[in-house]
């Protein structure tokens, strides 16, 4: 995609995000009351996708840049297009260092998702709890499932490097950790104990709907 096309998509994305935020500001009293309705959840999920994703992408790219500087490389190009970005670098780096740079941005994305998930233990009001849940879910699903599938399926991007021979035994360790994280999240998301906890946090009776990780 050309630079002009990317800028056009960014402008459209920003316009849609602004349009999504207007009713949130207008209806904030009902959205942030103690009752998180299905309508409220749908609004919060749109807000997280349109407003929460860009900062996550920015931190992802900064993770690549920080890893580049850490191993002695030089960042020669950097771009952030709200929903996408890239870092270009040079330097006499080893294959393992290239592998680490590819991994670092994704570790930031995964870590951001787990930090948000950990914040669910805080005494948040139901609306803020669901917003935090939606952000954690979007971050983890995209970082652990969406982007790896997109990258490996298309044959470009970070995950083609992460799961290449460049990482040596570290690539296998990453694969095992990746699989373990997915299995753990799937098991937690399907457990009755998790569902009951979610229902209590959202002020519901019985099993909560629309709150599973998977």
Quick overview of this protein structure:
By secondary structure, the chain is mostly helical. 70% of the residues lie in helices and 6% in strands.
Number of helices, counting only DSSP H or I runs of 4 residues or more: 8
Computed CA radius of gyration, to the nearest angstrom: 19 Å
Order of strands, widest sheet: 1-2
Query: How many structural domains does the protein architecture include?
Result: 1
Broad structural category: mainly alpha
State the helicity in percent bands: over 70%
Query: What does the oligomeric state look like here?
Result: single chain
Strand proportion: 5-15%
Shape: globular
Query: Could you state the order of secondary-structure elements as H and E?
Result: HHHEEHHHHH
The main pleated sheet reads as: 2 strands, antiparallel
SS elements, strand count: 2
Any low-confidence stretches, pLDDT <50, length ≥5?
205-214
Question: Can you give the mean pLDDT?
Answer: 90
